[in-house]
Amino acid sequence: MAQDTQATPIATTESAPSPSLADHGIEPVQRGYSWHVASNLFVSFKYAWAGITYAFSTQRNFKIHVLVGVTVLSLAVFLGLQPVEVAVLALTVGAVMTLELVNTALESVVDLTVQQTYHELAKIAKDCAAGAVLISAIVSVVVAASLLLPPMWLLIQAQL
Asked: From CA 135, how far away is CA 120, in angstroms rounded?
C-alpha cells in the first residue's frame, strides 16, 4: 500500500498578527542552534548544555540550587560520608536541578502560548511546575539533614 507523501495544508483563519516580544520591549535571547535537529550525539550534548547555560544565566532559583547542591556535596565529602550517602545526596540534588530545568522549559512554553496574556490554565500549569520544584527541594532538605547533621554534630562535639 503506497503512502501519501504530500503534506496536507492546515487551514488557517486570517487574523491580526500576534504581538511579538519586541512589541513589548523584550529582546529575545539569540540561541544559534535552538531550531535545528541534532545531527549527532555531540550536537545533542551541545543543545543540552545550551539549556543548562540558559537556565543558569537567567534563572535565579537554578543558580541557588546549583550553589546549595555544590555546598551540600562538598560538605558530604568533607565529613567523610559513605559513598552511598554521597550518591543519595547527588541524586537528590540532581532531581531538584532537573525539575528546575523542566519548570523553566514549561514556563517558557506557556509564555510562548499565551503571549503575555492571562489564562487560568497557564497559571495552573506554571504553579504546578513550581510546586513540583518546591516539593523536591523540601525533600532534599530532609535528606540532606538526615545524612549531614549526625556527622556534623559529632564533629562539633569533638571540638568542645
From this structure: 22
CA dist 4 and 44 (Å) reads 31
> Which fold, 62-159?
Helix Hairpins (1.10.287)
Distance, in Å, from the CA atom of 107 to the CA atom of 96, rounded to the nearest integer, reads: 16
* Type of residue numbered 149: L
Instruction: Enumerate helices (H) and strands (E) in the chain, giving the number of each.
Output: 4, 0
Active site residues: 100
Contact 114, 122 (CB under 8 A): yes
Comparing CA positions, the residue from 69, 73, 77 lying closest to residue 101 is 69
Residue 89: alpha-carbon gap to chain centroid = 18
Domain extent listing, the chain: 62-159
On whether the CB atoms of residues 152 and 79 are closer than 8 A, the answer is: yes
Q: Grid coordinates standing for 103?
A: 519548570
pLDDT tens for the chain, 160 residues long, are: 444 444 444 444 444 455 555 655 666 666 665 566 778 888 889 999 999 999 999 999 999 999 999 999 999 999 999 999 999 999 999 999 999 999 999 999 999 999 989 999 999 999 999 999 999 999 999 999 999 999 999 999 999 8
